[in-house]
## 1
Amino acid sequence: MTQVMDYQLFINGQWTPGDSGETMDVINASNQEVVARVPRGNQKDIDRAVASAKETFESGVWADKTYEERADILRTAAANVLKNKNKLAYLESLTSGSTIRRTMAIDVPAVADALKNVANWLYELPMLEHGMCLPWYIPQHSYYIREPIGVCAGIVPWNFPMILAAWKFAPALAMGNSIVMKPASITPVTLLELAKILYDSGVPAGAFNVVTGPGSSAGNYLVQHPDVGKIGFTGSTEVGRHIAHLAADGIKRVTLELGGKSPVIVLDDADLDMASSLCLHAFLYHSGQVCESGTRMLVPRAMQDQIVDLMIEKIKGMKIGNQLDPASDLGPIASAEQLETIMRYVDIGKKEGAQIAYGGNRMQGEQYDKGFFFEPTIFVNCNNQMTQVREEIFGPVQCVIPYDDLDEAIAIANDSPYGLGGSVCSTNATRAQWVAKKLRTGTVWINTHHMLRPDAPFGGYKESGYGRENGYYALMAYSEVKHVCQSLTNDASRYRYFRVIGLAR
Ligand code: NAP
Ligand code: MG
């Protein structure tokens, strides 16, 4: 039995008990053991966190620091994240079902990279975003500057709890905002750990707060709070749409990163070994629980069988097991609820006539029975109208759609309410670039998938959301631009604008 870890809220630089005294259990998805407990935050907790964020913002202790001062603190935070790598990776894996190999190699470094990237930008931005306007026809001095928005809210899901949080708090803090974050109820632990690391690195009390609690109550209240000026959200399209409505009522700035059903287009010149690995990576990374997973695989009809056979052979060589075992290639599904969603879609797929070439079942056996393990699953001979092909499943399920010519493949790829990612597999760079141009998605990969960088914009076309995370675009999304204009005329009788209403002649 693992020792159960008890956490508190992180508000105003301090561990703080929740108002209600109620808690929520956090479990290990491999065996359903309770591993941690966090407060079930309520509206009073959100009020306290927002008040602290507002007070800190208005005090100027963070917002009025120079860009370089903030950059130095965020760099220190990045270094401290890396110093705590083993602990953070362990906790992320324990609570989210992510394999330890991935959290060590990708997730923890990605949090540090997000902090380092915004810090680097802070040295460049004063030159790019603070400028003089040209001389005007009357003597005046005009310039424009970037300013923080104020109090931001960050709401994140359970698939990459630390990375998706960092993509919000790094740019928010870089630009001088304060932020209140609400993690997903099933994966709240690592964001609380990051709060302490940021505070210990020099981010002042109140600039970064974490309130754990249910999205439907605490989260819903946070996004409507009148003192919150900006919402950064990653999660389902359904909740994103709801948040967009609430944001509209309050005229709040909002960045939404929502669902996807990304296509992977294999061209007829593709290398089979590369294509089969790419198509597996596209839908098996984090067992498919990724918003930009490539789960509609378009292959030339004549190549379908060969590629799928190779994929099956490679799946058989993968080790599926406890996420904390460094030998595991794939871990469990994150929750019982998500496992049910996946099983429901697989049933729908069968009913709608797609054939299963591999998998399709919950995994059985001693090491799987207590956890939420699901077999990598490949549907073949799909068409783009089938429910399991159109809707986001968020699990290890690939849908293979055979095509006859490339224009048809591109049309099918774009025939989706989503537009988050897409990839092309080809040995011909010119053809691949042509397909990249045609895809209506926020990211296109060529001969890779899931490759997100801290310096490249990430976000969706269509119902996959709006706004962009990462790099320069994220910094713009967490700031306002202000024009300051000073007339250099002290003599009212000579002031041209006064003449317009007869104040000067
Ligand atoms: P979700 O409901 O959209 O949850 C995402 C976050 O929003 C969580 O922190 C959640 O809190 C919070 N939330 C829920 N309702 C809210 C509300 N009314 N106001 C403010 N915040 C609210 O996603 P989910 O239920 O975990 O997953 C459902 C499906 O969404 C998945 O099957 C998948 O298709 C998709 N999904 C997409 C992404 C992505 O990266 N784009 C990530 C996760 C899930 P609680 O945890 O307390 O509910
Ligand atoms: Mg939900």
## 2
Amino acid sequence: MFTHAICRLPGTNFAAGLTTADLGAPDYREALSQHAAYQRALASLGLTVKVLPASLEFPDSTFVEDTAVLFQNLAVFSRPGAESRFGEVELIKPEILTYFSRYAQIAAPGTLDGGDICEAGNHFFIGVSQRTNQDGAAQLSYLLGKEGCTSAFIDIRETPGLLHLKSGIAYLGNRTLVVANALANHPAFDGFQCIIAEEADQYATNCILVNGTVILPSGYPKLKKQIEEAGFAVMPLAMSEFQKMDGGLSCLSLRFQL
Ligand code: CIR
């Protein structure tokens, strides 16, 4: 169960962030309205949502998930793979440290974005991507190992359309994963039940299980049905403006239990 979430409002220069999506510039007002609906969705599922002010210095800073990996009472601060995002970690640190008594830091030459880390109970899938390098992945694996967790690396550098590992997988509990077709049959998922999203639904594999409900981007009826058929309640949320900036549902918050 999650009790808390930290989010950050998109800034007026949100459109100046990094993107590879060829979907046009996001509309700022619409992004704010989608962000507000996202906050309300988390609150409706029982979370206390802390909303941090926008930062004009870091246009991608609304994607707070990339700055840290939270596990029980340990916060591991990331070292983002994109230089323009380095400062986001220092920016959010004081807020995270109000909740977490223990912390660690991914160090150079390691790089790591939280979007590459998928927690599945005491097991973690760690993506090696354009943003998270082998060294960063190994540092996190070592830190999680000390917490009694296992981890598996998944190299997505050659998988088209995936910025982060969680652009293509999500963990729904009960050893069940949503997996993009491009990653289907990966040996790391042996022993897990996989809901395979067809190629057209790849964006929606970035969904989040929050206290028993799966929040899913709206506009993906086939994947919605597949997840419902697996026994989950699904709450669709419009995400178009964040998709234009390569962002998804998971990136917009850090979720944890106190
Ligand atoms: C970036 O390219 O870093 C941002 N525009 C999007 C980050 C999305 N984060 C995530 O998937 N965890």
